């Protein structure tokens, strides 16, 4: 099989890249190790930056998002049993955040790719990368997991295979530097059949640990609590989860958390991670394959989309004028923005979670930070401009 760009992974990065390349007249083939049903059903991110929303609209895949998404002009930071609103719309000159689930973005992208006769091979196995430092790299894989070995011959490979995929390890160890921070806490996330308890997202710092109130639709809500990342979900009965949520989100006024049946629950660990460089020869990494952020800043999917926008532009410049300059600068261009999102995600995580090794002094510093960021116009503006998304370059 031959194509211009071989894409490994049908997450937001791989699918959006294939979509953007198609609009530029560049051919690609995506290979994905999971089934279509699985990737369309995996519950992950919920918050889209203004830039992601604008890109979806500009490239013709925003229609359902505009109909079914929720457009929020602010967020609430809750601490000492009081809510403090950050009016992001006002502080950023009219930008919003959109709550629209990642798997809905995935469905919209897959539908658009298939309608345009794009090729996505699901359920592949044994993926390996070859001849990356030549001008004719190859991807080898098995169709339908255990089928015959096949090859994709291409000009470029896009490694969009998430944190655990084979692309990043294909960059020789001597070439890449990895930066990592593992946090001593994780998130227990639930989906519940209940109406929204608040009009906007609520991030709560509480002595029992962090809690987050988010939404999916008028009928389904998404909530998280900070837990030990090694904890077993079997230890968390629905009652225990609601008790924690009530305690951590409680306010001194008569605000009420609305309960409903819990229809999904799970625990995720949290880390910050960056691989530098994000490219090697004809291989370009994008999204979680190259960097991970803790979800407190709601940045992961948005960073994946920003990377592939930069990559699509660089590939366009190569195919239309033969210039390699943007491709050579790809990693440096992405990493400037990535490190700022890493900083912001680390900052939000540090400010909002309970750190068991914190001294009373450090705890007071954390509360002072929250007080400052919610009372100073300069500090609120800084938080808001990072949350809605920094400029592309
Ligand atoms: P993905 O989504 O992991 O997709 C990678 C794809 O590659 C496939 N793959 C392979 N395919 C072929 N061969 C192989 N050998 C392969 N190995 C793997 C995988 O099956 C998969 O389909 O990476 P991508 O595209 O870079 O997208 C990144 C985002 O998914 C991720 O950053 C976000 O989900 C992070 N995130 C959030 N991001 C936001 O922007 N806003 C949020 O509100 C937000 N909330 C979250 C989040 C992530 C969370 N979890 C579960 C980690 C909330 C949570 C709880
Ligand atoms: C979500 O709705 O899943 C969500 C919202 C905000 C975050 C992370 C996840 O910071």
UniProtKB/TrEMBL annotation:
Q: Which residues cross the membrane?
A: none
Keyword Glycosyltransferase recorded? no
Q: Report whether DNA damage shows up as a keyword of the record.
A: no
User: What UniProt keywords apply to this chain's record, in alphabetical order?
Assistant: FAD, Flavoprotein, Monooxygenase, Oxidoreductase
User: Could you tell me which residue ranges the FAD-binding domain spans?
Assistant: 2-345
InterPro entries linked = FAD-bd, FAD/NAD-bd_sf, HB_mOase, RIFMO-like
Any GO BP:
benzoate catabolic process
The record, for SUPFAM superfamilies, names: FAD-linked reductases, C-terminal domain, FAD/NAD(P)-binding domain
Q: What is this protein called?
A: 4-hydroxybenzoate 3-monooxygenase
Q: Native species of this protein?
A: Effusibacillus dendaii
Q: Which gene encodes it?
A: pobA
């Amino acid at each position: 099989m031959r194509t211009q760009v071989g894409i490994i992974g049908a997450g937001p990065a791989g699918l959006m890249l294939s979509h953007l390349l198609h609009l530029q007249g560049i051919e690609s083939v995506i290979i994905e190790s999971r089934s279509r049903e699985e990737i369309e059903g995996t519950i992950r991110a919920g918050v889209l930056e203004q830039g992601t929303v604008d890109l979806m609209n500009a490239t013709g895949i925003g229609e359902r998002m505009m109909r079914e998404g929720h457009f929020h002009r602010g967020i609430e930071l809750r601490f000492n049993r009081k809510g403090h609103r950050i009016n992001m719309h006002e502080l950023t000159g009219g930008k919003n955040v959109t709550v629209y689930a990642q798997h809905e973005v995935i469905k919209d992208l897959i539908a658009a790719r298939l309608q345009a006769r794009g090729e996505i091979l699901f359920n592949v196995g044994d993926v390996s990368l070859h001849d990356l430092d030549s001008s004719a790299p190859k991807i080898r894989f098995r169709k339908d997991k255990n089928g015959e070995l096949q090859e994709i011959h291409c000009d470029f490979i896009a490694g969009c295979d998430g944190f655990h995929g084979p692309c990043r390890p294909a960059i020789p160890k001597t070439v890449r530097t990895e930066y990592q921070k593992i946090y001593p806490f994780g998130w227990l996330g639930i989906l519940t059949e209940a109406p929204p308890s608040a009009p906007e997202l609520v991030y709560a710092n509480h002595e029992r640990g962090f809690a987050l109130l988010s939404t999916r639709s008028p009928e389904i809500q998404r909530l998280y609590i900070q837990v030990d990342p090694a904890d077993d979900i079997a230890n968390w009965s629905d009652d225990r989860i609601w008790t924690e949520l009530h305690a951590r989100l409680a306010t001194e006024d008569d605000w009420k958390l609305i309960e409903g049946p819990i229809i999904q629950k799970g625990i995720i660990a949290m880390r910050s991670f960056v691989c530098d460089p994000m490219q090697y020869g004809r291989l370009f990494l994008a999204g979680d394959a190259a960097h991970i952020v803790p979800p407190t800043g709601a940045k992961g999917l948005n960073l994946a989309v920003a990377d592939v926008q930069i990559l699509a532009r660089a590939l366009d410049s190569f195919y239309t004028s033969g210039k390699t300059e943007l491709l050579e600068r790809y990693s440096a261009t992405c990493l400037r923005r990535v490190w700022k999102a890493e900083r912001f995600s680390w900052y939000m995580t540090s400010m909002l979670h309970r750190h068991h090794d914190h001294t009373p002094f450090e705890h007071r510093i954390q509360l002072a930070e929250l007080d400052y960021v919610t009372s100073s116009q300069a500090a609120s503006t800084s938080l808001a401009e990072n949350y809605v998304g920094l400029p592309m370059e």
